[in-house]
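Narrative progress, year one. The postdoctoral researcher (J.K.) led the effort to move from monomer predictions toward full complexes, under supervision of the PI. The following entry was the first complex the group processed end to end, covering 1572 residues in total.
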Amino acid sequence: MGSYLYRLYRGFQGEILAVPGRVIALIFVTLLFLLPHIIPHPLVLKIFSLAALFAIFAASWDFLSGFTGQLNLGHALFFGVSAYSAALLNVHLGVPPWATIPIGAIAGVIAGLLVGIPALRLRGFYLALVTLAFPIILIGVIFVFPDITGGELGLFGVDRLSGSRVLDYYIILLVATASILVMWKLTDGRSKIVRTGVILHAIREDEITARASGINTVRYKLMVFSISGFFAGVAGGLYAHYIRIAGPSILELFFSFQPIIWTIFGGIVTIYGAVAGVFILYPLVELVRLHPVGEIYRIVLMVLILIVVLLFMPQGITRWVRDHIEEICPRCKLINIRTRRYCRACRAPLRAEK
Amino acid sequence: MVEAILINGLVLGGMYAVLAVGFALVFGVAKILNMAHTAFYMVGAYLILIMSIMLGFPSLPSIVLAIAIMGITGRVIYKLFLDRVKEHPVAVMIISVGVAILFQEVLLIGFGGHFRGIDPFIHGFVEIGGIRAAYQQVIAIVTSLLALVAIRLLLSKTQVGNAIRAVAEDREIANVMGIDVSRICVITMGISAVLAAVAGAVVAPVFMVHPLMWLHPLTIVLAAVVLGGLGSIKGSILGAFILGFAETAVIFLVPMGAFLRGAVGLSVMVVVLLLRPEGLFGVVFEEERL
Amino acid sequence: MAAPFLEVENLCKHFGELRAVDGASFHVGQDEMVGLIGPNGAGKTTLMRLITGILKPTSGTVRFKGEDITGQDTAKIVNKGIAPTFQVVKPFRHLPVGANVMVSCLCPRAKRRGDWVKTVELRARDALEFCGIADLALEPASVVSHGDLKRLEVARAIATEPELLLLDEPFGGLSPAETELMGKFLRRLHRGGRFGRLHSEGPAMVIVEHKLSDLMKIVDRVIVLSFGQIIVEGTPDEVVRNKEVIEAYIGKEVSSLVS
Amino acid sequence: MYLEIKDLTVLYDRAMVLNGVSLTVGKGEFVSLVGPNGAGKTTLLRAIAGLVKWEKDTLKGTRAGRITLEGSVKFDGEEVTNLPAHEIARRGLILCPERGRPFREMTVLDNLRAGAFGCKDKKVVSRNLERVYHLFPRLKEREKQISGTLSGGERFMLTIGRAMMSQPKLFMIDEPSVGLAPKVKEDLFARVKEIYEQGSTILMTEQDVSFAFDLAGRNYVISKGHLVGEGTAKDLLADESLRKTYLGL
Amino acid sequence: PPVVEEVPTIRIGIIGPMKFTVGEHTWWGAQMAADEINAAGGVNVGGVMHQIELFKADSNELLSVVDAVSAMERLITVDEVDFVIGGARTEAVLAKQEVMADHGVIFINVGSAHPEQCMRLAADYERYRYFFRGAAVVNSRYLGKMIFALVDMVAGEIRQELGIETPKVAIMMEKAVWTDPIVAAAQAKLPKMGMEVVGVWRPSPIAADVTAELTAIKDAGAHIIMTAYLGPVGVTASRQWGELEIPAAKVGINTDAQSKRHWVATGGKVEWEVTFNFIGPVEITPKTIPFYTRFLERFGDFPYYSAGVYDSIYLLKEAIERAGTLETYAVIDELKKTDFLGVGGRVVFTGIDSPYPHDLVWGPGYITGLGIQWRDGELVVVWPDGRAVLGDKAWEGIRFEGTVDYKLPPWMVEFWKGRQ
Ligand SMILES: Nc1ncnc2c1ncn2[C@@H]1O[C@H](COP(=O)(O)OP(=O)(O)OP(=O)(O)O)[C@@H](O)[C@H]1O
Ligand SMILES: Nc1ncnc2c1ncn2[C@@H]1O[C@H](COP(=O)(O)OP(=O)(O)OP(=O)(O)O)[C@@H](O)[C@H]1O
Ligand SMILES: [Mg+2]
Ligand SMILES: [Mg+2]
């Protein structure tokens, strides 16, 4: 037992404490979990609850579009379908949140498959446009059946997630942490346990070659669409119960752009970049709003930050930071902290010497 | 009914085509996903509005001036924001979305979110067999066809046109051929911004002017260009007309469902793309079919 | 001649007016190493693509081990045991070279044939070692030189544990020394046996190549394609001396090709 | 010297690809560059053509953009090290890239016309076009074909033809013979020789050492980013160790 | 020195999409009321005069409902306002109601007219009782009735002027839940009113072009276009209707046409259109004209939403003064007893046993709304015209001073005169 714990500790020390990026992530998550005790203000809790929820949403976009290269400009579809399903079940049938959210997520999976199947033949911008069309078409459908969907009002009077603000926050945060960990694991190209990561990368890089390597890309693409739909659906279900309304605004074009903006800002093809993007941009804008001048210029400010950051860090903020605090060993490709001169594993020099 | 659908579809398609033609150049041909294109259209419309209504300039000079300013704006925007990241297409996309939102916010703050209008060149309408079309809409059709011809000439007959296509395909190799990639992109953006401003002068008087006016046309132009097939200008124009006809048909055939016109237009696009994944006139390599 | 292994019958592929492959019929035996040569644009690559399902034929059939596989999905065909390489290299550019090969090791066929969970990295490594690029395993493919990418193509193909390898210009861009080495390796692979942890049952091969001198050393039989049609079939010696072939393809120099 | 390279060093991130390479090409000379795979031949040509700098500029802000480029390249007496790639090309220093990279979605003819981008004189363009078609009649046949659908060999032909359209003063050809049928290859070398004899200067990398040595007046041998040998074919072949280690002959 | 005890202010949050016309007007109306009240000494709470302090929150709700919710939360938890006034998009108002209920803060909605917001009170009064429909805003159920009155007036004019006995009506209303019942009612009711329905067109609220709809309507031979627009489609519809001189009188609701800017936006093409409005340059109450002119002077636009906000703040003031405390439930109780004569009419809230609790009582003697017509860049009031409304005698004689008679568009008269 003791030795096991010791090994665990050594693993922790070697794999997490030695890599600055992971240390930052660890500190960040810890802080999030302590947040209600540090700043118990309801507005702050609200902002961070929403941020956590959007983090799932953004990460699920990165999972689909970043990792597999299936550029999805209509990601709001999965979110919206799930939010509507959860709200429908809850409002019309009184199903409680713990059931509606998973069912909503399943609805997200179905939406994912419905988009994924036609998308199999399409690529690049063609795919992007078809996906962009779906939520807009769905808005049309929603307006056709106002009795069921509530038309422009949406479905309101949805049950609250739990009774208390803090509990709401923890539920969302826990679900978000778990979802993001799962997505991160699924996409980890170096993982020795789950091999999907490397295959997803391969499909993004060159689908034809992937097929010539014997990979059934159809299956994987559908899988990715449904997993992404699932997690976007989780976010959508949480949203319906948190904001307590599911309306057409969550299917609008801009709502689809949001996860893309966050992800690109944070760093595409990373999952954690999407999360960081949300947690930087969203609270920032909300906090700037507290000032009357900030309220007017908040979006201008956000956009300027976005543009400036992308101009200098075209791959997003986390990847830039990572490149500046971490060094990859030229020989064994292990991640080292920038300050080291020799690789922590293979002792190869980390800096070129002439 | 049929002639009404035909004429109205033509009229609507003409307006969509004017909006789409500049985008077809910058996105379809040059493959720069400039999401701010319709925001340029919006800014062009606002410039005309400011000059002709607020400052009281006569309309033709204000239009010419607006087009000139937009031509420069397009180039400046490219130089400032997009040139640096041209190797990262998603960054280009997001930055251009950012630029569009920036325009939107600046206009919102500066002018408020009010609906405004600019005057058409000629007031009034023509009547063909009892069906009325505003002069401005006829002008739109003519403009779109003129622009189509001009761009096709540019692309097929001039070195710059050839270079635009080359740059879109392979920037690195274009360099080696002595093509200044940045300059070609700047030129492309300039031309497309000019065309966006032309759309501002031609289309905005029929629609209306307000700071969110870029969003709806954005889906239209994206759909038109992709429907026609990337790389093909005539495809984009055709795509615009197809959308126009589809939408008009909805209004005449199911008036109760007129609100579905956008959804139906996009559905038509989806169906076409499922049948022809490369769009109507897009290039496809058979061995890369999925 | 052994039992029918790969049979191509009257295969045609037309691109509009152009008949890229025009009624080609041939077969490859289970233990054969066949060279496929012909002038540029003769239809060699197209023929290979038709076999692997990357292109769908206009008409004709492809049979593999007696089963009709015409126009099936590429992934399916690969999992039946036919592995293609590309003439114009198409690696997963941002993945490490090792991962490029690992993807092949993860295909159902390769998984079925090995205790994959534990050894997939090792087996990818073996394939790389076999092709002589193991030291590049951790480098992303985008930084690897052209010649090495050609070798990576071969490594990726053999990692699917094929019974039939279709190699499209495997020597393209290799230096003379490496070409020779690669030729020897292919020969060895064909003979079968154990290479580290990699077990080869000796796949049949079809090799498209313009480096005739190197090709002729390793193949048993040569098929010559011209304008989509097979004009000559025979041993290397016969082919090289064939008038038609010389005229259409080789040009003047002959003697240097045959040892 | 027409082209003069001094201490050219290229580091990708921390990987040394070229290590202080110095070489010269005289006006009207035919120089070849040989060496094993991954030696740095392509990188050297790309660095001369300004593509390494271009890569560095466009990838700024990313890990892949951490490129160190040192040393100097002088062409026709002028320093071109810090010029953008298209400027260099305009001065007549033309690179014909390896692996045949046509502009895939353009027709063969448009590809060739793109090659003549800098050339304003229509007559010259059509004369050059004639020359290319004469060299590769196959291209004329396929004038209207989308170049992405060409066969591998046809693509190489097109790439070479396209580079020839830009009237190179100094023509850098990266592995011209890959993927060409023996007969075409023979032809090609005859043509390259013709171009050379008409007054172009040529710097060529080639795997087929015997061909290269046949053609070139002077040769450089490069390995792992270092120049390891220089001289006429005879000199090099005489050096036993060089022959064994680097040339594989 | 004597310790001066500071009197806390009454904190009122004003929420709305501040970058858009609705939000702007909400803010203007609030400012006007607050300035007046403060200048007059403030609000008397149990003998102590309190000043009003306004807090502005941009809900951005036309673009993002999440933003609206956060803005509401911020007003309540950071600015700690005692009351919230505002609201524009129904979806957002419904979401804001939840925040309101969570925190128990009085929320007066002045922008969105949907009955659902009040029906929720009937379903769960405990939770949602903090909600009131702001002054002068008409529940969209009643809006429907008003449109019929307006159409009836126009039809009368057509019969008289053009001699067409059964005018043909085209229904062209934006596709929305609030218009659905109006459309259904119109189809059923118009024939009974001696008119013929020739078709129903339902463009999207954000449609940028309605040429095809207008062509179809003209094709159908309609004399009247019955409209209901909240969205931007209203602007396009006016503009294109005027440009193409569609020979049918346009009447109904077109919210944007209530603003002075609409005239400019449509290049004057809106001329002759009739729309419902909350307020106009007529003497609804003695307060109306002074308010109207003061507002126009100060802000350069006609008041519309602003009238509701203005009145809401005044009636809130009265309720607080009657309650003598800022305590929420006491104020709610007093609000319920409101009987207030504002600039938009007499404000009385419906009781809790109504299907729409805390809504406004509509009808003769209460809030009525007006029919206005654009003529030569000016808004004139054409309704109530003193006649009975659809047989309801209670409306007889209700005609505010300054009202003028309705006129048909001249091109329409010309078009149909030639055919008769
Ligand atoms: N998709 C296509 N559309 C039109 N023509 C095509 C297409 N693909 C190939 N071709 C043509 O078919 C012919 C055969 O091409 P293929 O690639 O099979 O030649 P190859 O024998 O492999 O030549 P190489 O030795 O040069 O690689 C070529 O002339 C090529 O231009
Ligand atoms: N972008 C890059 N980043 C890192 N290393 C690179 C990059 N490009 C090339 N290299 C490395 O530089 C070395 C030389 O590559 P180069 O392509 O110049 O070789 P080459 O001599 O042309 O080889 P070949 O004959 O195979 O084409 C290779 O080892 C390669 O891995
Ligand atoms: Mg080939
Ligand atoms: Mg090379």
